[in-house]
Design goal:
The complex is a heterodimer of chains A (about 150) and B (about 450).
Chain A: H1 4-30, H2 39-50, E1 58-59, E2 62-63, H3 73-77, H4 79-87, H5 106-120, H6 127-130, H7 136-145
Antiparallel strand pairs in A: 1-2
Helix pairs in contact in A: 2-5, 4-5
Chain B: H1 8-34, H2 46-77, H3 84-105, H4 120-143, H5 149-165, H6 175-210, H7 214-235, H8 248-277, H9 285-307, H10 312-318, H11 322-352, H12 360-393, H13 398-404, H14 406-433
The chains are: A mainly alpha (about 150), B mainly alpha (about 450).
Chain lengths: ~150, ~450
Amino acid sequence: MFTKQQAKMFFLVGTFVTFAIFIALTIYSLKQVRTDIPQDVASGKHLWEKNNCMGCHTIMGEGAYYAPELTRVIDRRGEPYVKSVLVSPTPWNPKGRKMVAYGFSEEEADDLIAFFKWIGNKDLNGFEKVDRKVSPLSKDLMKSND
Amino acid sequence: MKYKSQKVAYWFWALSMLLLSIQLTYGFIMGFDHLGYDGLHKWIPFNTAHTVHINTLVVWLLAGFMGAAYYIIPEEAETELWKPFLAYIQLITLTVVGVAALAGFHFNWWEGRKFLEIPHELDYLVALNVILFLVILLMTIVKGKKKTTTALVLFGGLVGAALLYLPGMLQFDSQTLDSFFRWWVVHLWVEGVWELIMGGILAFLLIKLTGVDREVIEKWLYVVIGLTFLSGILGTGHHYYYIGVNKIWLIVGGIFSALEPLAFLAMTLWAVNMYRKGQKKHPNKMAIYWTLGAAIVSFLGAGVLGLAHTLPQVNLYTHGTLVTDMHGHLAFWGAYAMIVFAIITYAMPNLTGRKFYDNVRGRLAFWLSNIGIFIMVSAFAAAGVAQVYLERMLGYDFIDVQKKLYPHFWVVIIGATILTTGLILYMINFIKYGLPTDEALEN
């Protein structure tokens, strides 16, 4: 069939070639990624990480699947709703699922909203359309639950 | 055992078992949170429970790999470990860093990046710890009589894991760049260098358990890890579909992700064929169960269930839902948890010299834990598909959908209870029969 030496060459050459392609694609991709991030967006991201929001929510589909996807949260819920959640001094408790009361300041809430808007405006190859607005059917259901 | 210094492996595995217990406990907290029973929310909110759950997973598996390396490398190199007291120092420092991180998670001291939540300040201590670990192994290999393929692949996997930790320490203002390099760590660990570690441990176990010629086993080891990197490196692209980078990753990620199951299929066929060919049937039947189990379940969990949602057309809807939990649980269990249990089960009788290979508790541990995880994964699958349909297709509100999934989460809890029962039985055997002794040294 084939020898151990040939199998070793298959491993070494295959790894080298695919890794080289991976690095080339990485450079090509990252050249197109904007790095001039506005200060409020960067501060919002810092708050997002500092409070481990990803430990419950998802953003761009990445997170813990316990709380809603936030990629298009500003479109879906509107800025005033999101801000009231962020500054709330008591635990937010939508339909029984609790959120930690972070009690963000106005400025911190604005930074987080800037971060959400920045994400929400990104071209995510179609995923941004999946995190759509709540359907009319669901809105009816929500009213009946209230 | 052949070398006295191999004993240190037991204490790394003891740390693994301790961390696994914590992981299971916090898993239950999360399961009940999903069902609305969140009485611990004030002290352990979901993000704390989740962070503890996934980080204890990573560290108990790494401690398991380290124990495996300390057991395997001396035997392969035919020499005692280089300065074994340093291995104990490494164990103690690893434990201290681990405890500090776990405590910190309860006081909002974390990075808030999935799987890489260990606080940035502790990253440097982790790096130092791993450097010490690698130096001990390297010096052992250098001073050893033999440099086998199995030992070199295992060592190469561990070096790769250490190097790939570094991109995770980079910090970016852009969420896109952050996510891009976070996957260099997470994906290239679990679908890259960790498979080298798994392959190295599996090769060692197959050599010992089947009696098939080392050259044949190691030849196929190269094929398996070759397929792993051939598919896995560019397969990283499936994490780049929807993070704000260009569309080329939809094509590259889609094609190479579809090839990823081949590496796991090759691993399954390799292990099963070596077992069939083997003339020597080792008396340690439970080690054979766990070894073949790891090879087969890793194909199902990492290979088949990964393929189920990795194509971009499917992943567009399943991304960020409980479908990922379905894949993640069985993949980590089959590929990495089971291989750690396999090496522990093989090594324990050698470390104690008791030649205690099989008991009812050990068999129950194997079957209950596997039945439990399959029940859990089936429930996650049902919940995930329902979530995708209701939330992503019909557009229902997230929380309304979550409430519809309660029955599935009760099944998750039932599966987790069976899994935990099996693992408790495993730990009883580990504590009762595993403690190493110098009398076990082979002449």
